[in-house]
Design brief:
Helix content of chain C: over 70%
Radius of gyration of chain A: 20 Å
Largest interface: A-C, 41 and 45 residues
Strand order of the largest sheet of chain A: 1-2
Helix content of chain A: over 70%
Largest sheet of chain A: 2 strands, antiparallel
Strand content of chain C: under 5%
CATH topology of chain A: ABC transporter involved in vitamin B12 uptake, BtuC
Chains: A mainly alpha (319), B alpha/beta (492), C mainly alpha (328)
Largest sheet of chain C: 2 strands, antiparallel
Oligomer: heterotrimer
CATH architecture of chain A: Orthogonal Bundle
Order of helices and strands of chain C: HHHHHHHEHHHHHEHHH
Number of helices of chain C: 15
CATH class of chain A: Mainly Alpha
Radius of gyration of chain C: 21 Å
Distance between the termini of chain C: 41 Å
Number of domains of chain A: 1
Shape of chain C: globular
Order of helices and strands of chain A: HHHHHHEHHHHHEHHH
Structural class of chain A: mainly alpha
Strand content of chain A: under 5%
Number of helices of chain A: 14
Chain lengths: 319, 492, 328
């Protein structure tokens, strides 16, 4: 049998697909050597703590992208979850709040799932609508004010740390492991790959493609809720503007990690790299004194660049 | 055990206006390699789709292993031991070999045991005589390797009967040998193969029996040893030409198209020919011989790598379809629904799109002019539609095709490339179409007609070029233009 | 004239369902609060929605062409900043306006080029313009560090663009021109063709790439014009002026009845959609429903309208006799 490993085409596609991550890697190495405060234990711990909060949602976004969809409403569900969680903590205590928030994330995700899987609205339009509505909901319920909580248990959880590592990285690690296991060893996970790889072939092979397209949004809703709650544990507050461009961040992290927007390939383990690289990049920028709006600029630029490279790599494949 | 693993008795299948299969009886002995041959349109694909459960026959019965069965869908057929390997594989390119073989079949277990899956996949491949890394991603495999995966997949379903549709169309000689080896191995294991192919040489090499279909009927069934190649061809194509092709008497003019050594990647090699004014040049060949690719290159939809294209004596470079149009070339595409028409648009708007300048007055589109143009072509081409404002999707296929033709006539193209122009059209409309073609060349236009329907190519062309594997295999003129000659050149 | 069968009536209702629902809402509000239906109030609504209306008109071209432009809001912000900065720097009015428009067109061209490079359809256009939105919004913040820039504006062309009835006139005239171009010119016809079936358009001799870039350019241009009208009215520039514009524009387009899948639509419908949403917002305000509630409504409205559109299409497809094309 012919071995197709190192031909020119393959190298070219490899380079294009991993261009952005390689550039970022170079940048990171440069930072390590030029800025002393960058490579300290404190800073590294800081990076890990912060990126873990968003990393949980990034994992779920990866699953959605493997199924050839994406979800813009993640940032709104995040914001909503912070608000709901804080309100419920104050009203019912942390345990009830946890379950209620988780459930609400699942329900919102399910709504998205029905729109995309059953009604067949293109994901980007459907989630655009839900993003607006849910954000609005968060504003309405809080009257645009931040809500604080002084729940002691929550505070304790937020302050908990082992050598500086807070609960977030632990949750992140757990979520990663669960997803890796889910995607590799369960048929639901494999069906998601199949559905994203080729909807028709998957369908003809008897796979429940509608369910796959549905469940990924539920997962996103739940993970966005978890991310929101993790965030609350440090901030001890809930507010509608939170979450910013979380969806953009998660999509970028996924694609940087090497999962293609076309679907059917990639994995959560790759997204870890994407999340870390993004976190490191923006940490570095902050240390370099780059201001907020410039950082936003770079975020947008990274997304566009990453999408373009991914699309170009895909174009090459289709000879 | 029954001698026959499959017996299809008296199968009749009709579609609106067409009888695709007429009382077809098709029997395959256990363990044999049975060839199914016939032209495009003979009914092979329809018959196999019925076997696969995709279509339901209007009349007739299917017996498997001596038991009457009903095949309701693909999964049903698969579970009864029938697997079909189509030319466009049913594989997911982003997944591994092992995973594709067991696609969607983890329902019995809670968790996937990859070791088991991989071992089993490896075993299946080894039973075919190949040792293979089952972790490789299918998208990176060669066509031959993908075929292997499909066959392994069929085996994993305990297939009794494997149908291969044009399996060697993209294989190298070595890979073909490999495939034949596999088929022999399957035979050893009492697995039956139905082999659909145009390549008669292969039929003689590997098959035991051959069934010849023509126009939806079985013409003959014979052991391969008892029949000759020429007889097969004769039976495949021999027919009384029912249709009287309209005659014409046109003087040929100067050379309007001069192609010299056109090359395009792996698709076209060294194409050279000329076209005269008033000529209808037929291009025949099997599916995949490069005819459509040639058309695309001549129109500008794709750019040639090297070679010369001369239109009306002037050398041109065609980088886009606009370039093609500017050089008076028009192209009727193979698939009118996908690339020929905008179905939600009206008849009038589909026609005028190629030459909007003509229906503008003072830089504005004139509804009145558009209507007039549409009416003119509706009359000229006898397009059956209640009004010029009828959305195109309401029209029948034949009338839709006429609209496409009207569109290019309106563009004042002098050189028309027609790719399968009468596909999916009833006999009456076909005749009208041919008359129109005659009128066009009488007016001084020139036509290149690509068609898989031999009678039409023979009946309408002044000259025929036969393509094979991206090259022009031969040119036929005058009395040489016979079905047998065309087939001989088109088939390997 | 088509016969007024029950089928055509049913189709008409389905095509305009959202429209009808919102209309009902407005009628109900009018009963509750009569001052709502005064001429003054309605003119005011029109004036307030003029800028978003202009943006929506531009985006309509993109949507009909089967594309998206989510960067319109940021373009509005950027153009505004550029215009005011130019005026403050002493540049004559017409040049300042020119610079603002140029900025909008430039961003549009970049959008179009990026999308064309990857032969993108609506999904790619969506996400690329989404990224562009972030980038351009950030650029708009640079010059002033996020603060308002007061404009040293003298009476003149620029000043007059935002006063009185002018915004309304600009909005409606632009809409009329765009609709006219869409329906009556070759360019517009090709746009519909491209949006409906891009492969067929390509095979019909239409130069698809340059055309598509132009749609983005127009969208950018319209955003620029909207920015100028906006800045002129408030004689200052808000670097986040256009925040959320893309959502409002999409809402207007979708409520107006233009299909998100492209190929058909009308600027006229978009105008109606924008006006209806504007009136609805006003009505909701009168009913005591605040801006944030309205945001929820807007999001749900988009979902409802798109769902209706898809449902409609499915019914239409089923109603047409299926012709089986077979290959024997």
């Amino acid at each position: 049998m012919k071995k197709h490993t190192l031909d020119k085409d393959y190298i070219g596609t490899f380079l294009i697909r991993n261009a952005v991550s390689m550039m970022l890697l170079v940048f990171v190495v440069a930072m390590i050597f030029t800025k002393r405060s960058f490579f300290t234990a404190d800073n590294i711990v800081n990076i890990i703590n912060e990126c873990s909060v968003y990393g949980v949602t990034a994992c779920a976004m990866t699953v959605a992208i493997i199924c050839a969809e994406f979800d813009l409403s993640a940032s709104s569900v995040f914001a909503w979850s912070t608000v709901l969680f804080v309100i419920c903590c104050n009203a019912f205590g942390i345990v009830a709040a946890f379950f209620i928030t988780l459930a609400s994330g699942a329900v919102m995700g399910a709504f998205n799932g029905i729109l995309v899987a059953k009604v067949r609205i293109p994901a980007f339009v459907a989630t655009l609508g839900t993003m607006t509505a849910i954000k609005g909901l968060a504003y309405v319920v809080t009257d645009a004010q931040p809500i604080n909580t002084s729940n002691e248990t929550l505070y304790a959880i937020g302050q908990f740390n082992i050598l500086g590592i807070t609960i977030a990285p632990i949750v992140f690690a757990l979520v990663i492991l669960i997803f890796i296991w889910f995607l590799k060893y369960t048929r639901f996970g494999r069906n998601i790959y199949a559905t994203g790889g080729n909807y028709e072939v998957a369908r003809l092979s008897g796979i429940n493609v509608e369910f796959s397209k549905f469940i990924i949004f539920v997962l996103l809703g739940v993970c966005a809720a978890i991310s929101g709650m993790l965030y609350c544990s440090r901030i001890m507050a809930g507010w509608a503007p939170y979450g910013g461009d979380l969806s953009l961040y998660c999509v970028a992290a996924t694609v940087i990690g090497g999962t293609s927007l076309l679907g059917g390939s990639g994995g959560v383990h790759r997204t870890i790299i994407g999340v870390l690289l993004m976190a490191v990049l923006f940490n570095a920028l902050t240390l370099l004194g780059v201001d907020g709006s410039m950082q936003k600029f770079i975020r947008g630029l990274v997304l566009i660049t990453v999408i373009m490279f991914d699309a170009m790599a895909n174009l090459r494949k289709r000879v | 055990m029954n001698e026959f693993v499959l017996e299809m008795k008296g199968i009749t299948k009709t579609f609106p206006g067409v009888v695709a299969l007429d009382q077809v009886s098709f029997s395959v002995k256990r363990g044999e390699v049975h060839a199914l041959v016939g032209e495009n349109g003979a009914g092979k694909s329809t018959l196999m789709k019925i076997l696969n459960g995709v279509y339901q026959a209007n009349h007739g019965e299917i017996w498997l292993d001596g038991q009457k069965v009903h095949l309701s869908n693909i999964k049903d057929a698969q579970s009864k031991g029938i697997s079909i390997i189509f030319q466009e594989f049913n594989l997911i390119n982003t997944l591994s070999v092992a995973e594709n073989i067991f696609l969607g079949r983890y329902n019995d277990e809670k968790l996937i045991n990859w070791k088991e899956v991989r071992t089993e996949a490896k075993r299946l491949l080894e039973s075919l005589g190949f040792s293979f890394d089952v972790n490789r991603i299918v998208g990176k495999l060669s066509t031959a390797e993908k075929q292997l995966v499909e066959i392994a997949k069929a085996l994993s379903f305990q297939a009794k009967l494997i149908v291969m549709d044009e399996p060697t169309s993209s294989l190298t000689k070595t890979e073909e040998e490999m495939l034949f080896g596999i088929i022999r191995k399957l035979k050893e294991n009492n697995i039956t193969t139905i082999y659909i192919s145009h390549k008669l040489e292969e039929v003689f090499r590997i098959c035991d029996t051959v069934t010849i279909l023509r126009d939806g009927k079985v013409i003959d069934v014979k052991p391969v040893k008892e029949i000759m190649r020429n007889e097969i061809i004769e039976k495949m194509v021999g027919r009384t030409i029912d249709m009287d092709y309209p005659k014409r008497n046109v003087q040929f003019g100067e050379i309007v198209l001069d192609i010299k050594q056109l090359n395009r990647g792996r698709l076209l090699h060294d194409i050279s020919f000329q076209l005269r004014k008033g000529e209808i040049l037929g291009i025949a060949g099997l599916v995949g011989s490069g005819r459509t690719e040639l058309a695309e290159t001549l129109f500008g939809a794709e750019k040639a790598d090297s070679g010369e294209i001369n239109v009306f004596g002037k050398r041109v470079v065609l980088r886009s379809t606009r370039d093609g149009q500017m050089n008076s070339i028009g192209m009727l595409t193979e698939d009118r629904k996908e690339t020929g028409l905008v179905l939600p648009f009206t008849v009038a708007r589909n026609i005028t799109i190629t030459n909007l300048k003509e229906v503008t007055s003072n830089l504005l589109l004139s509804g009145r002019k558009e209507k007039k143009v549409a009416e003119k072509y509706i009359e000229a081409l006898n397009i059956k539609t209640p009004s010029t404002n009828q959305p195109l999707m309401n029209l029948s296929g034949g009338n839709q095709q006429k609209v496409v033709l009207a569109k290019w006539l309106f563009s004042n193209a002098d050189l028309l490339i027609l790719d399968e122009p009468t596909r999916g059209i009833d006999v009456g409309a076909k005749y009208e179409f041919y008359c129109m073609m005659n009128d066009l060349v009488a007016q001084g236009k020139s036509i290149i007609m690509i068609s898989s329907e031999l009678p039409e190519v023979l009946g309408m062309s002044d000259r025929i070029l036969v393509m094979h594997n991206g090259m022009i295999k031969g040119e036929l003129m005058g009395l040489q233009m016979t079905a047998e000659n065309v087939m001989q050149l088109a088939i390997d | 004239m088509r016969k007024l069968t029950s089928k055509t009536i049913r189709n008409a209702i389905r095509d305009n369902a959202i429209f009808i629902v919102v209309l009902l809402l407005i009628i109900i509000t009018a009963f509750i609060e009569p001052s709502f239906i005064t001429w003054d109030n309605l003119l005011n609504i029109l004036r307030q929605n003029a800028t978003i209306g202009i943006v929506a008109c531009g985006m309509t071209y993109c949507i009909i062409a089967g594309l998206f432009d989510l960067s319109v809001g940021s373009i509005v912000s950027l153009s505004g900043v550029i215009v005011i900065l130019s005026i403050n720097a002493g540049v004559p009015d017409y040049l300042a306006v020119g610079y603002g428009l140029l900025a909008g067109i430039a961003v549009g061209v970049i959008n179009g080029t990026l999308v064309s490079l990857i032969n993108g359809r609506s999904g790619e256009a969506f996400i690329i313009t989404y990224g562009m939105q972030v980038v351009v919004a950030a650029i708009a913040l640079f010059p002033s560090n996020g603060l308002f820039i007061a404009g040293r504006v003298k009476p003149g062309i620029f000043m007059s663009m935002g006063q009185g009835m002018t915004p309304i006139i600009i909005f409606l005239s632009l809409a009329a021109i765009m609709q006219f171009i869409l329906v009556k010119t070759r360019y517009g016809r090709q746009l519909c063709y491209i949006g409906s079936n891009i492969s067929a358009a390509n095979m019909s001799g239409i130069r698809v790439k340059p055309n598509r870039i132009s749609y983005f350019a127009i969208s950018g241009l319209m955003s620029g014009i909207a920015a100028i009208v906006l800045c002129s009215r408030v004689t200052s520039s808000n670097p986040t002026a256009g925040l959320g514009y893309e959502m409002d524009a999409i809402a207007g387009i979708v409520v107006g009845g233009t299909s998100m899948s492209g190929g058909s639509g009308s600027v006229f419908r978009t105008v109606l959609g924008i006006i209806i949403i504007g009136i609805m917002s006003n009505a909701l305000n009168i009913l005591g429903i605040t801006a944030y509630h309205q945001q929820v409504v807007k999001g749900l409205l988009i979902i409802a309208a798109v769902s209706m559109d898809i449902w409609n299409k499915r019914i239409k497809v089923r109603e047409i006799a299926n012709e089986k094309a077979y290959i024997g």
